[in-house]
Amino acid sequence: MRRKRVLSLAALVLCTPTLAGTAPAAASPQAAPASPLRILLTNDDGYDAPGIQTMFRHLTAAGHNVTIVAPLTDQSGTGTKITNAPTMTVKHPEPHIWAVDGTPGDSVAFGFSAVFTDQAPDLVISGANFGLNVAGLATHSGTVGGAVAALEYGVPTIAVSTGPLSAPELEPTLAAMKPTSDYTVKLIDRLRSRAKSGPLLPEGTGLNVNHPVIGADGTGTARGTSLTTQDPQPVIRPHFTHAGDDTWKVTTNVAMRPAQKGGDLEALIADKVSLTPIAPNWNTGPADFGKTAALLRGLRP
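Predicted structure:
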């Protein structure tokens, strides 16, 4: 069942060349313009971060009705955390911006409860994040966490991140936000053209998009698109050194193993955009469920 879903997504987004990279498509006869989507745009870098602002400009230029509902401050690495507090500060500096003093998950929850009160948005986009969210990083990412929160509301969702496989440099990564946002607009157009009047994505399924930084200045075109799985390796490992008393010094090391075949790291090593289907739960596939059931068969309290 899981394999069929992945294959259907592959057919949806990879069958024609318009998503091969981020270069402009050749001119062709235009169909009547579709009505604009109502998009909730969030992130984990903060509502005024360059990535979300670039994404906002590109989505609005494409004709969509976009509302930013994002954290007031940087919430990187907060994963799927939801704040448990009796009150929350929310600033509303512009008609299309809501800045929530909480996590990406809090922002999404506020957006559905207090901003999109009459009707849920057509699409939630989380990003573009400064730095990739691949392999084990994605599991702990606030960008992906915001997308997971939106999927729990049953709304199609896309998490978007930009960066190299090494520590991101400021200027090239910021420049790469433009091709990333261009690509996201193309991706939305593809999903809309295939969905017709139906859902943009299969029910309960989102996409985790990771766009590489191409060229020294970050403005280059990716070499294609790969529909991928999440590589299981952690990528970054913390190391703890006792510094006396109750204090431990924490350092982090990049510890990359060879990329898994068909995984997100493999795609990015090849300078391709990685599209990874995600779901708002931690269920295993049927094969692993069956193996685990065999291990536990006959267990009694």
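Summary: The radius of gyration is 20 Å.
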